[in-house]
Design brief:
The chain is an alpha/beta fold. The strands form 3 sheets. The chain has a 6-stranded parallel β-sheet with strand order 2-1-3-4-5-11, sandwiched between helices. It is found in: Cell envelope.
Length: 368
């Protein structure tokens, strides 16, 4: 598991900042600011295409951005034509970077973004709509925020229905524990929608396992190094009472595995989420019992495609049904029995997607 150590080491280094938008633009006023929400201007010409996300050192976000790069290449553009807005987990930076890029481009922008947490999505969308630009969001938004309330400018929102898949992995974990003992949960950023849903999945499963105690649940902020610290503290606090670990994503699981290894523990039942290549290999080796693949490569590419094709007038979002404005992305449960087949199909080489098939692999409308 040397790659886990390498991963932790890399996360302690200063991360590269791929932000191409100039902060000097913050003081300017976007030319598109004359257009209010719901008042989209004529189709844009050669809009800047951007992706806003946490950071690329995380394998999940690397896959998201790789999908975005594949989309821009499908337009005959080089990979570096995609502008990167890296927020490093800061909602304030996410919003300020979007505003800076809107000012720099005069609103001639097609943006795909995870706004970092649910409350931050509204001000991001409002800024984009006011500038006459176009945005497709993923993962985090509040339940009262809807694309159809912003005409064409807020193109779409994609999330994943995480409660049931997280419950499925939890049941695999609890069965491996023999239906008894103590489990700990390491979550994502507390205000993130997927973090909330994945913990809910565990709690749903626990209702059917009265002899399993949830010893503790703490956020690890989707971060390997923090997960390592949280798990080390759990081991100090609970010791042998811990007989299973429920991780909110794969990068958290890497930190957990390293903390366990430091204590000489090699056979602790663990489950995770995201289906990153390293995690799938660990599932094949039965060092992780299960993970859930959300096809981030497709999610990253199709979100950029939706924003771009709406911006350039290839389709009109306001003429689409609501299930095309808010929809679930696909999920696949990966277990040791099918991990190698899954890896060969989805990870060893990226599938060749048609980026104009906007809703092909999607999984139905978002339900509240």
């Amino acid at each position: 598991m040397s790659f886990i150590k390498d991963y932790i080491a890399r996360e302690t280094l200063n991360r590269r900042n791929f932000l191409f938008a100039s902060a000097a633009g913050l003081g300017g006023v976007a030319a598109g600011g004359l257009f209010g929400p719901g008042m989209a201007r004529a189709a844009l010409t050669d809009p800047t295409i951007a992706w806003g996300y946490r950071n690329r050192t995380n394998p999940y976000w690397n896959e998201i951005v790789s999908g975005g790069e594949s989309f821009v290449q499908s337009l005959g553009l080089p990979r570096d034509a995609l502008t990167h807005l890296i927020n490093e987990g800061s909602s304030e930076k996410s919003l300020s970077d979007v505003k800076a890029l809107l000012a720099k481009t005069g609103g001639n922008l097609a943006l795909a973004i995870d706004a970092n947490d649910a409350p931050n999505c509204r001000p991001v969308v409002e800024a984009v709509a006011e500038a006459g630009a176009y945005v497709a969001t993923i993962w985090n938004k509040t339940d009262d925020l809807h694309p159809w309330d912003f005409g064409d400018n807020y193109v779409s929102h994609m999330s994943w229905s995480d409660v049931k898949p997280a419950e499925d992995t939890a049941r695999i974990l609890l069965d491996a524990m023999g239906g008894k003992g103590g489990v700990v949960h390491l979550g994502g950023i507390a205000s993130n929608s997927p973090a909330i849903q994945r913990r809910q999945g565990l709690e749903n499963a626990l209702k059917d396992y009265p002899d399993v105690e949830l010893l503790a649940a703490e956020p690890a902020d989707w971060d390997t190094q923090k997960a390592n610290q949280v798990m080390s503290a759990f081991l100090t606090r609970f010791g042998d009472e811990i007989t299973g670990v429920h991780c909110a994503n794969d990068t958290i699981a890497y930190g957990v595995l390293e903390a366990l290894r430091a204590e000489g523990i090699e056979d602790m039942p663990i489950v995770s989420y995201d289906g990153n290549p390293q995690a799938v290999q660990l599932v094949a080796e039965k060092k992780i019992l299960a993970t859930v693949f959300t096809n981030p490569y497709w999610g990253g590419g199709i979100s950029a495609a939706l924003a771009y094709y709406a911006a350039t007038g290839a389709f009109k979002p306001s003429e689409e049904p609501n299930e095309h404005r808010e929809f679930y992305g696909p999920t696949i449960l990966v277990t040791p029995e099918d991990a190698l087949e899954f890896k060969a199909t989805y990870l060893d080489s990226a599938p060749d997607y048609d980026w104009t098939d906007y809703w092909g692999p999607s999984n139905g409308p978002i339900r509240y």
